[in-house]
Structures are given as structure tokens and as C-alpha cells.
Design a protein that fits this description.
The chain has 381 residues and is of the alpha+beta class. The protein has helices spanning 5-9, 17-31, 39-55, 58-65, 93-101, 129-134, 279-284, 343-355, 369-378; strands at 121-127, 136-147, 163-164, 173-180, 183-190, 199-200, 213-224, 233-236, 252-258, 265-267, 270-278, 286-291, 296-301, 310-313, 329-336. The strands form six sheets. A four-stranded mixed β-sheet has the order 10-11-15-14. Strands 1-9-8 form a three-stranded mixed β-sheet. It has a two-stranded antiparallel sheet with strand order 2-7. The chain binds zinc ion (2 copies). The site of one zinc ion has 8 residues, from loops. One of its GO terms (cellular component) is cytoplasm.
């Protein structure tokens, strides 16, 4: 008994070629082994393919309509080209979609354009803290493809034109017909003569040899805004690589690299620095002059300041990139203990300790391990 090919595809006997194709497409998507690994789905997929093979072929469909089965062994005769082919390997899912429905993403086929957008470019720019903090107009040297001025991107020598590719007739692709399990599968490959452009350049521009662009070194000035940080990128629209055939240039990204500063370390928009104060100044309190990035500030160190204390100078850090205001400057105080005391100073300090009731054991003046250690550290002769 003949198989119900119309039923397999779920179409009526009057279905048009288009309806059959649509029904097949829908079912093939659903049951292709790449998509649906279920063994039952694989059987179903074979049926769907068989049905499509039969109903998409006028002669075979005719046999079905006359009550025969063109795929049955000896059934309908006419075992012509595109027979079932037994256990032939599956054609890839995408190949089927490409072959029957034109293009992977349903995109248009045909020659690819000679003019294509260019790529982005990136450039590293080293700046000092002062420059990242307050902004700078920095000169940069850019090495990219630019439009060929000889041919303005066309790629052809003066007075000549593109020619239609003879190998593919300008389509940019050549078709080949494969006989497969599914019947005939028509597949298209880019034309190797014109690389898929559909045109050739009989007389290339002597400057760019047909590419429409040339590599060159340019000087630009990039405006760096105040407050940029290490690793940030400034985008210069359409200053990147010009595309093939003189296509729109990509963007140029200038990546900021901030050189380490001798005095300040940066955390976000805050700055940190270290200032040494003598023990006496820390104990008695003092006034310091601090050089900030862009000014001099006088700050008071309170009496009794402990080692590791921090002074905060508001809005003396890096200006915020967005919005107004600035970060703060943190001054970390290193309290320095005196290392070289002459006999008078030592006596004063011992007396001082005594008045405070602080017990200070006296190390032997004459030799002794600890004394020698102390002398070695302090550089005493
Ligand atoms: Zn061609
Ligand atoms: Zn040129």
C-alpha cells in the first residue's frame, strides 16, 4: 500500500509547491537529528524527507496522485535520479536550510559588497598623574589603513572600471547539485575567481593594488578629559581602520595608562601620600606645609599624634570625571623616632621618661650584645 506522503507533511492533496516547502521546513526543523536526537524523531525525519522528496518532484508526485509509491521497491518504477539512496548519511541541517530556503539566516544571497566597514583600532597612551587628573591635549601617532586617495576607494586604475566576473556571471557564487538521500540538493559556494564579489578589477589602482585603502601613519591630537583613570578608553569615532573598498572607518580607542607617581598613589579619585614627622613634633603638635597636585596647603598636626595617623585634605585629590568636585588627599604620617642621640639628648630623654614614670632599662655602654646591635643599626663607629 502506498504511503500517505501528504499526510506525513500534513498538507492537502491540492497543496502548492510553496505550501509543501513550508510544511517540510517546519517539520525538518522540528525533527532533524541535530535538533532532536530522539530515535523516534529520526524515523520521523526520514519519513518527512521521503515525503518531501516525492511531493517536491512533479513526476513522483504524479505517481502518488495515481495511487502509486515512487519510493516503494519496484513499486512505482521510475527509480530515477534522486532515489532514496538507502542509508545515506544525513546532510547537515544547515545545508538543508541553505539549499532549500536560501541562506542560513534567511539573508539575501548574491555577490558580497567590495566596500565593507573597517575595524576598530586601539592605541595605548601613557600619561602622568597630573595629565590624567587635570586633562591634556595629547599628540598621538596612529598607524591605520586610510582611504586611498588615488582611486578614492574604488580600487580601479584611473579611467578603468570593474568588470562583471565571467566565471559566475556576476552572482558571486557558483551552484553545484548534489544527489543525496534527500534528492537533489543545490548548494552554492562563493566564486573563487572573484572571491564572491561578482566583479573583477582588470586594472587595479597602482597605489592600493585594488584594496581601496593604504596603510599610513598619521598624527592626531586627542583631548583627554580631567579625571580619567588607568585602563579607561577614549573613543575617537571613525579614526580606526578604513574598510576594504574604502569602507567607513572603524573607531579608534585610546587606552589610558597612568604612570606611577613618585609621591602620590591613586585610589579612584583619592590620592595618598606619606609624610614623615619627628617624634617630638608628633608629641608637641606642629604645622606642616603639604604640596598637593596643584597647590600648597598648611595643615596642623595635633599634639599627641600617633604613628600611622592620617590627615585628610578634602577636595585635593583628582577631579571627578563625571560631575563636579574632587577626591580627597590622604596624608599618612610616619612618626620618626630619633636614631642618633648625643649624651646630652640621651640624658634629657631619660629625665623626661623619669618625669613620666616610664621605666627605661639602661643598656650597657661597654659592649654587650644588644649594645653592639644598636650601634650597628645606628651606624655608630
Ligand atoms: Zn565570480
Ligand atoms: Zn587606490
Amino acid at each position: 500500500m502506498a504511503r500517505d506522503y501528504y499526510g506525513i507533511l500534513g498538507v492537502s492533496r491540492e497543496a502548492s509547491d510553496d505550501e509543501i516547502k513550508r510544511a517540510y521546513r517546519k517539520l525538518a526543523r522540528q525533527f532533524h537529528p541535530d535538533v532532536n536526537p530522539d530515535p523516534e524523531a529520526q524515523e520521523k525525519f526520514k519519513d518527512i524527507n521521503a515525503a518531501y522528496e516525492v511531493l517536491s518532484d512533479d513526476r513522483k508526485r504524479q505517481i502518488v496522485d495515481l495511487g502509486g509509491d515512487p519510493l516503494a521497491p519496484g513499486g512505482g518504477g521510475m527509480g530515477g535520479p534522486g532515489g532514496p539512496g538507502g542509508a545515506g548519511p544525513f546532510v547537515g541541517f544547515q545545508d538543508i536550510m541553505d539549499a532549500f530556503f536560501g541562506g542560513a539566516a534567511g539573508g539575501s544571497r548574491g555577490p558580497r559588497p567590495r566596500t565593507r566597514p573597517g575595524a576598530d583600532a586601539i592605541l595605548r597612551l601613557e600619561l602622568d598623574l597630573h595629565e590624567t587628573a587635570f586633562g591634556v591635549e595629547a599628540p598621538i601617532t596612529v598607524d591605520t589603513a586610510v582611504l586611498c586617495t588615488t582611486c578614492s576607494g574604488a580600487g580601479t586604475a584611473a579611467g578603468t572600471h570593474l568588470a562583471t566576473c565571467e566565471a559566475c556571471g556576476g552572482r558571486g557564487e557558483v551552484q553545484s547539485v548534489q544527489r543525496t538521500f534527500l534528492g537533489q540538493v543545490v548548494s552554492a559556494r562563493p566564486c573563487t575567481v572573484c572571491q564572491g564579489y561578482g566583479t573583477t578589477i582588470p586594472h587595479p589602482c597602482p597605489t592600493c593594488t585594488g584594496d581601496g585603502r593604504v596603510r599610513t601613519r598619521r598624527s592626531l591630537t586627542v583631548k583627554i578629559p580631567a579625571g580619567v583613570e588607568d585602563g579607561m578608553r577614549i573613543r575617537l569615532a571613525q579614526q580606526g581602520e578604513v574598510g576594504p573598498g574604502g569602507g567607513t572607518a572603524g573607531d579608534l580607542y585610546v587606552e589610558i595608562h597612568e604612570r606611577p607617581h613618585d609621591v602620590y598613589s591613586r585610589k579612584g579619585d583619592d590620592l595618598h601620600c606619606r609624610v614623615t614627622v619627628p617624634m617630638t613634633a608628633a608629641a608637641l603638635g606642629t604645622r606642616l606645609t603639604i604640596k598637593t597636585l596643584d597647590s600648597e596647603e598648611t595643615v596642623d598636626v595635633k599634639a599627641g599624634t600617633q604613628p600611622g595617623s592620617t590627615l585628610r585634605l578634602r577636595a585635593r585629590g583628582v577631579p571627578h570625571l563625571r560631575g563636579t568636585g574632587r577626591g580627597d588627599l590622604y596624608v599618612h604620617l610616619d612618626v620618626r623616632t630619633p636614631t642618633k642621640l648625643d649624651p646630652d639628648q640621651e640624658k634629657m630623654l631619660r629625665d623626661f621618661a623619669k618625669t613620666r614614670g616610664e621605666e627605661v632599662a639602661e643598656l650597657s655602654k661597654q659592649g654587650g650584645f644588644f649594645s653592639r646591635m644598636r650601634d650597628a643599626f645606628n651606624g655608630h663607629a
